[in-house]
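Issue 218. Parser rejects a valid record. Input:
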Amino acid sequence: MKTPTISSAASPIQVGSFFLETLTTGMYENPFDCVREYIQNSFDALRDAVATQVLKEEDARIAITLSTRGKLHSFSIKDNGTGIPAEKAFTTLVSLGASRKNPQQHAGFRGIGRLAGIAYCSKLRFTTKFAGEAQGTVVEFDCGLLRGYFSPGATPVDVRDVVSKAVSTSVFDDTLGEHYTQVDLMNLVNLGEEFVDLEKLLPYLEQVSPVEYRADFAHADQIRAHAVGQGEPLPTVQIEVRHRKDRLPINKAYRNSYSTSKKNLYSKLHSVKVFSNKDLGWFGWVGLSNFPGEILDPTVAGVRFRAKNIQIGNFELIEAIAEELTPQGSDRRLMPWAVGEIFITNTQVVPNARRDGFEDNKAWRALRKDVKQEVVKLVIKLARSSSGVRSLIKRLAEALARQKARLPASKIVPALKVDIETEVGKSLKILNDPDKVLGADPKEVSALAAGFKDVLERLNQLPVEEPPPVEVSGDEEQDAEQQDEDETSVDAEEVEEETVDTQAEAEETQNSDPWNHGVLAQVFIVLQAELGEVEARRLMSLIFSRAQQNGFA
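Output the parser choked on:
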């Protein structure tokens, strides 16, 4: 390899070596975000290859290889995208913040992500070959030397002089017709050693990568169809992790059921609710379930934001939005009860340099406000009402069992028929009210409704049993008629007197009520209207008695 000449002598402006620290160790809080940057670059190269017909979409691949020799670990990521032309390869790979990518088409566009590996390995090597060329290019960074220039107490040196000393390049012949870019992080150091830990690497890749849903995720087709309906099909790529003899495909971690903070209770997705706002530039989905508690899987808990189908930040973004709804910010704790995704299509909503959030601008604020109204408030409502909805469904199932048991085998008396019809009607009215059964399993709701309708159908098929007629003799019938006449005469004479007595008694009773004045009087009026006078008086007596015991009456 040869060392290129990159001089700072021609310019009086010095960009110090500590600038590199900002772009590497100082850029990302999570070391694995370095991995995401290389996936993002490979993803862009693959999309370019498909767009220019160098590659068929179904043939696009990213291969991640983990290797260990003794105590030395290495991490490699390779894509079969367009590659970089030999004449531009070196300049492209050593330039700082000078990307020529189009932010409307590409996931990455700042030209700094490729340097992320400097913080985590001894040597960072790029190998690339452009489609149709017979030569490839290798660019290698001496990361140990680079880190020395921005270690505490180091003398500042112009970054161009640093790169000149720490970077080497070479070319090689390759006539096989391949096109690719490969990034090797050789001899991992510090937190970079975690990159070969499958228990940490795989969950991270499942969260952030632009990959397909698991084959057994029941709602994947609906989500994909929703994206197509928005004119924004979800871009995906096949990613495989290779470790020794294992070949591990990466898919999004969404499943149909999740363990929760409530022991032995699982959050079971029965459907998804989709959202969209083309004017503001977003669409998404939230899984609907029984919402028993906080989902414990950190790879999916909480609705996630994605741009170009790559995750931006994590669940903390949606929690920060929910926190604004109350002075105490208590609603943020309900966000991990749900799963879902928000896909950003508005090109004015731009991920920040760390990709843990979005640049604060007018477009992001408008989108954020809409998501708060449409998604966050729904999740809160579903989480808070979930216990009541579960209890309601349980009571309706018990009611259905009772009504089935009340159906006789042959005939039915009119009073029982009316009573069953009334109770079934009430249950069906509840089941047909979307607000009352919001969050309940639609299949369970449909099954209950069908059960109550079946009760009505069986009820209407039963013949009604009329009461037997009462037989009376001629003398008895004549005596009865005479008695009716006498009673009618007495009733007519006494009705006015009785009415007056009843009114007087009611007035006397009302005036004697201890709750006849003030707020309690208003409470009595409401209870009487809703429950009837007898029940209202019983409750008011109880309320007044308790008030006396506690010294309020």
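Fixed in the parser; the record now loads. DSSP finds 14 helices and 15 strands in the chain.
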